[in-house]
Amino acid sequence: MNPATEIRIARIDDAAAVAVLLGELGYPASVEQAAARLVGLQRTACAVTYVASRAGNVCGLATVHSHASLNRDQPSVQLTLLVVSAQARGSGAGKRLVQAAEEWARDCGAQRLVVSTAVHRAGAHAFYETLGYELTGRRYARVL
Ligand SMILES: CC(C)(COP(=O)(O)OP(=O)(O)OC[C@H]1O[C@@H](n2cnc3c(N)ncnc32)[C@H](O)[C@@H]1OP(=O)(O)O)[C@@H](O)C(=O)NCCC(=O)NCCS
Question: How many domains, the chain?
Answer without folding.
Answer: 1
